Structure formats: structure tokens, C-alpha cells
Fold this protein.
Amino acid sequence: MTADVVIAGAGPNGLMLASELALAGVRPIVLERLPERSQAPKANGIIGQVVRLLDQRGLYRRFLGVTEPPRPIPMFLFGALPLDLAEIEGNTMYGMGIKQARLEELFEDRARELGVEIRRGRELTSFTQDEAGVTLELDGGEQLRTRYLVGCDGAHSTVRKQAGIGFPGVNAFSVISRAAHVVLPEATIRMDRAELELPGLGTTALYAWHRTERGAYGLLPVSPEVLTISCMEWDGDDPGEDVEMTLGELRESLSRVLGVDIALATPPGPGPHLLRRLSGRNTRMADRFRAGRMLLAGDAAHVHSAVGAPGLNLGLQDAANLGWKLAATVLGTAPPGLLDSYERERRLAAERVTMHSKAQLALMSPGPEVTALREVFGELLKDKSARGRISALMSGADVTYPMAAPAHPLTGHFVPDLELEPVPLATLMREGRPLLLDLAGSGLKDVWDGRIDVVTATCAAPPADALLIRPDGYVAWAGTPDDSLDEAVRTWFG
């Protein structure tokens, strides 16, 4: 059997990629070594501009069970420093609270609706590639032939290793992080005010990281009674992987960081309950995102600290960027070099994330010098323009893709949240097709053999007479229609 595309890994990134391919007319096969979806506690939400992309696919409201579109969040953190975004014009920080286990379930439902074949309990063990495709060896001796293979199989990616792609970077070995689901018997939790009150500690904000001179701790409610407590120490004793993490170990770590002892109890119910220790903080990036007919996306291509929760924003946009380009390549409509632009663009985004995640981790480390640095940084964050730049950095909005189109403030950026009439922008992007928006009533017609959707709409403050928007939401061209529009269509859509 020969498949057009095989994706290794049925996490959020792999399933998002599969759905994007299916929207474009390619039916991929997804291989997942686990026989069932993991219920292990992982991420608790998504932040950044990818939230708007999910709304453009009709998934934001569907996944959360709401009717309203996403709105920018008024407050966030950078390196455990408060980031007030309420007055930031054009704030691009969006949030979506959803547990990863539920997210994967919903993504799988979506992929299956689109006709994606998901094979669970099937592990890719090795592969070889030639000019025509890739031959996969699966556990149990089965072989599978595909035109393209995409590794969405995580930080320890078999695909990346088998392809001989390096994974250079650094590991902050001094950092030890512990986290668990707990009940605090002596605490008063006020969900309406997002506060926790605890004898010896006072009133502390929930949904936040806090730094002391000895480390950092985070408080995230799982329910009105149960919290996820995370605690980071630097230069502590690492018990080693062979020593099982316990609630007592977390309590001792918290005591060192806080300077007070806090009683912790195991939550009621069967769980699964988080109880995890991580030693070191990896920041690594693949030296190539593509090797012939093999490509990498998500954690297989880059890993970084989870501080600031940038992982799904980065990985899901990898999938959206790659999906339409790989589909066009498979279907034979791609212009020259289109698939190579995937790495060129997404490496820019990955470099920004690895930079700011390391910076945040440094700002949370102990010591009087860091305390002084935080004072300086905190003063800078009183400036609205500085907060706006940090917001754009964390949301991914400060990444500009290189475009050959004439200069325009929107070219190479994710399309802004335009209030269109008669049909909302998010609705126009549902099918993942290229979109040409005529905002000046220029009477534009589809002269490109149906490869793009041409829509006339009105906007209160149109940023240009027309916008050419790629399926991943990025503006490929903006301005007054002329020959440069034709050139942009040929450049991106053949």
C-alpha cells in the first residue's frame, strides 16, 4: 500500500496537520504507538495567535462549547512578572483554557470527520527513503510505503533520529522542577478573585508563577478544591530517575523555596493525578526541518522551557504552515520551492520562542543580581510600548515571514482581526483555502483557475484595498491590485 503522507504521532500537532491535509484534499495516515490516548496531565491551555487560527477553522468555539469569538486576554506573565495588556492596542495575546487530553480527543474527532485514518498501537521503528518516496518499517514487521513522512513524534522523535538530523542546543542542568495535583487542607481558595490565602504565606494569586530568592512556584487551579503546584529550584540535589517522586518531596522543595512549611494532601478520586519531577531544561532545535521526503514539526523540531506556555502556539502553527504546502506538493499544484519555505518560516518562529523562554527562565532564577534585573525589567514594563512588544513576542505576532510582495505593514504577518461584513473573516477561512479579500469594491474576479477564493467585503477601517491571505492565516500580499498581485498568486499558489 502507498499513502500520500504518513504522520508519526497522534498528539495535537500531528492531528492538526492531518486535518489541514484533509481539508486540502489529501488523506494522510497517522501512526501512533500508544494503543489509547494518554490521559496523563500535560498542558492546560493554548495561548497566542494560534487561538485565532483555530477559530478560523471553526474549532475554538466548538472545542470550548461557546458562541463568542476569542478575545485578547487582559493580563499575562513574563518571567513571573505581571504583564498588563488591557490597554494594549492591537493586543495579539489570546487564551484558550483546555486540558491536553481533552484537546487531543477533540482533534481526533475532527480528523476522523475529515476522513483521516488513525492507526493506534502501531509504532514506526525505522524507514528508508529514495527519490520516489519513503518505506516505513512498523513494529511487528509490517511495511508501509508513502510519498512523504512527517515526524510529529515529540522531543525524542524516532523520525528525527532515523533521519540523522542533529538536535543541537543546551540543557540547564541546574534546574529541578517538581509538580503535582494537590489539596491544601489549610488554604482558602477564592476562585472568583483568583486568589489563595494560606497561613504563613498570606494572599497569593492563582494562575501565576511567583519567584522568591530561593526559587519559583506556580499555582494553577484544576478545580475549586484541587491545585496544580509547580516548584522550581536551582542547584538542588537531583534524586535521579530511579527515585520515585513523592508528595513529600514536593513539600520539602516548596518549604525551601517559600521559607514556610505547607501541608499537602493527595486529591480525592482515581485520577490520574500529576506527580512529576523534571531535571534540567532542554532548549534544542533540529539543524534541519526537512531531509528529502521527511519533515519535522512540533517538539520533534524544537524543544524549550514551558514557561509562558508557548509550545502549542508554536507546534500547531507548524502544522498549519506545513499542511497546505505539503498538500499542494502532493497534488502537483505547488510552485517551485514552496515546501522549502516551511523551514525558512517556522525556524524564525522557533528561534523567537527558544529565546524568550530562556529569558523568562533566567528572570525566575534566584539570587540578588536577578532580583535587581527584575526591578529594572519591571520598570520597563510600565511602558505601554514595551508591554506591547513583549505581548507580540509571546503571541508569535512579531514574526515576519519573508515575502517577495511589495512592502506593506501587513505583508508576512498573521492577518489582523478584521471586522468584515457581511461574513466574518473566521467564517471565510473555514475550509483552509487561499483567500483574496476585495475591501475596496474593485470588482476583482477569479482569474486564477479557482485556486483562491475571491470575496468582496466591507471593513470599517480597511488596512488595504485588497488582501491575499494564505490558508495558514498569513498575509501574502496587500495593497492596490496590480501586476504584483498576480505575481504573489503565482509565487504561493502556482
Summary: The longest strand covers residues 143-151. The radius of gyration is 23 Å.
